[in-house]
Design brief:
- It is a single chain.
- This protein is mostly helical and 219 residues long.
- It has one domain (13-218).
- 44% of the residues lie in helices and 10% in strands.
- It contains nine helices and four strands; from the N terminus they run ααβαβααββαααα.
- The strands form two sheets. The chain has a two-stranded antiparallel sheet with strand order 1-2.
- Helix 6 packs across helix 7 (146-175) and helix 7 (146-175) runs antiparallel to helix 8.
- Bound molecules: zinc ion.
Length: 219
């Protein structure tokens, strides 16, 4: 999970649809803007190029009973169906960290070790960070139904592939620290727009003593 810059003002359809009895919060102006603002990446698992994106409500609108939340631009997020489903549990209703308002990387450490994802809030009392960390772990590791085994595994494999690309570029960088081409590749791999950026940036942040020059790509 990384910081996302939400654009303003809110898409125009939201106010119009909120005034209707059964308005929609996912008119084209909303979905197009979310896709762009979120770099077509699920804000929870950070998978890119989603085939099943959904407009997700950070705070639940209780089947439309809470109209303000249902049409509030700042409550709408871009997520894949898998993550949206996993998040749809009571324990997350209190609200996970809002990645458009707070920088998740300042509040949570993310990592991949021995084919398991881990995430840890930096402060135990930071409840929204604790919940967000728990959710990120679940979307990669949760295997309580057949489809979830498949979908969690798919995400984990995507993450492993991307981490391997990063490790191999870091290896090439160690051998050729002056290569502009390798630095350009690393810059792209560590950009917040890239797939699984939170994990890649977390890895480099943890190993900054080996790669001090890469610090600027994490800013
Ligand atoms: Zn996802």
């Amino acid at each position: 999970m990384v910081k996302v810059e939400r654009s303003f003002p809110a898409p125009e359809s939201l106010a119009r649809e909120a005034a209707k009895a059964n308005g929609s919060y996912s008119e084209p102006d909303v979905t197009e803007r979310l896709e762009k603002d979120f770099h077509n990446k699920c804000y929870i698992c950070e998978m890119k190029g989603l085939q099943d994106p959904e407009v997700e409500h950070l705070l639940p609108h209780q089947n439309g009973k809470d109209k303000k939340r249902k049409f509030d631009w700042e409550n709408l997020f871009w997520a894949c169906r898998h993550c949206n489903n996993v998040k749809n549990q009571r324990k997350y209703d209190a609200g996970i960290l809002n990645c458009c308002r707070r920088d998740p990387e300042e509040a949570i450490a993310f990592g991949l070790e021995e084919q398991r994802v881990w995430a840890q809030a930096k402060e135990n009392g930071d409840q929204e960070a604790v919940l967000a960390a728990q959710l990120v772990v679940e979307v990669f590791n949760l295997c309580n139904t057949g489809m979830r085994v498949y979908k969690s595994k798919m995400r984990l494999e995507g993450l492993e592939t991307e981490m391997n690309v990063l490790y191999s570029q870091l290896g090439r960088y160690r051998q050729n620290p002056d290569s502009r081409r390798i630095l350009r590749t690393l810059r792209a791999l560590l950009s917040r727009e890239s797939a699984f950026a939170g994990f890649k940036r977390g890895y480099v942040r943890e190993h900054l003593n080996e790669y001090p020059e890469l610090k600027e790509y994490l800013e």
